[in-house]
Amino acid sequence: MNDRDKTQLGKTLWGIADDLRGAMNADDFRDYMLSFLFLRYLSDNYEAAAQKELGRDYPQVEGDGRRVPLAIWYANNPDDVADFEKQVRRKVHYVIKPDHLWASIANLARTQNGELLNTLQAAFKYIETESFQSTFQGLFSEINLASDKLGKKYEERNAKLCTIIQKIAEGLTQFSTDADTLGDAYEYLIGQFAAGSGKKAGEFYTPQQISSILSGIVTLDSQEPKTGKKAKLDSVLDFACGSGSLLLNVRKRMGPHGIGKIYGQESNITTYNLARMNTLLHGMKDSEFEIFHGDSLKNDWEMLREPNPAKKPKFDAAVANPPFSFRWEPTEAIGEDVRFKNHGLAPKSAADVRLFIARFPLPEGRRRHGHYSAPWRAIPWRSGRANSHQAADRWAH
Questions:
Q1: Which pTM does this prediction carry?
Q2: Secondary structure (DSSP) of 248-271
Q3: Which pLDDT tens digit goes with each residue over 8-47?
Q4: CA angle at residue 327 from 322 to 333, to 5 degrees?
Q5: What is the largest CA-CA distance in the chain?
Q6: What is each CA distance from 134 to 72, 183, 261, 297, in whole angstroms?
C-alpha cells in the first residue's frame, strides 16, 4: 500500500470515529477504536500463521464471510488443538481462540448478536493473561465495556458496540491491512484523537519529521558517520517513550533484524498501553521489547536505578522527546537519589533539565552560579519557563 492509501485509510477510520462517537469525548472513544484496530492486527497475523502451518488442511470457506476457517478447524480437530497452538506460538509468540478473532467478532456485530459484549470482555481478558508467554496484564485497562457512555443497559451497550465494530470492519475492507499499514493508521488516529481532545499529539508520539532526524542521528556510526548507519544496535532506550513511535522509527531505519531489543518507559497509563499495542502492531514479538510503566522523575524503572556500575544496563543508543519546560516538585528525598545526589536538582520550572540529569549525568555536572556546568555548554537556569529549545539549539552548535 502506498503512502496515499495509508493516509486515506487513516482518514476513513477517523471519519468513522467522528461519526460514531456522538457525545463521547475523544479520549474515551480513542480507547475503543484503537483496541479494535489492535485486535484486527493480532487476528490477521495469527490467521496468516495458522494458514501457513496447516497448509492444505486449512478450511476453505469460498468467500463466505460468515464462516471463520479456524473456528471450523478447531471444531473438527479438538485433539490436535494443543499441538497446533504450541507450533503457532513458537512462530508468532501468541495464541488467539477462534471465538476471539476479529472475523468472529465482526460477524457478531453484523448480526447484532447479544453476546458480542461478553465475547469482547472474554477476548480482552484472554489476550492480557493467556495469549502471550509474557503477561500483558492491564493492556485493555483503559477500555471500559461496561461504561454508561456506551449505554445504561447491557442491551444498549451491546448494540452500540455492534454498530462501532461493524462500521470499522466495513471501512477496513476497502484497504490492505498489513502490519505497516495498520501501524501507520494507528499513529494517525492517535494524533487525530489528541487534537480532538484539545491536546497536542506530541503528548502521545513524536511527529515523524522530528522522529526521522533523531533516529537518523543515533543510527549513524559514531566513529565514522560518513560510512552511514551502524550494522547493528543491540539495545535502544527511550525513557519517555509515549506511544513508542520514536523507538519504532529507529527500528524501521535499522531494519527488523538490525536491533536486538528496544526498551521504553512511560508514566501515563493510557499512553503506556498504547505503546505496548503499537509495538506489537508493528510486527514486534513480545521477546523483542520491554515497555515499563514508570516515571523518570518519581518512580524510575528499577533496572535504570542500578547503583552498581558493573550491573547497570548499557544501551547502544538512547532517544527521547520528553516534555519540555513543565513543572515538578523537587523534595529532599529526591535530592538524595543516587542519580542526583552529586549533581543538584533542577528548579521547579525546568523538569526537562532534571530528566536529562537523570539519564545522562555529566562529568563536570554541578550547580555553579546559576548554571548547570557541562563540558560542552552551560545551560542557563532561569526563573519561570525554561527556554529548552534555545538550550537544545546551543547544544547542537
A1: 0.79
A2: HHHHHHH-TTSEEEEEEEESSHHH
A3: 887 888 888 877 777 677 777 888 888 998 999 999 999 9
A4: 100
A5: 77
A6: 28, 22, 15, 27
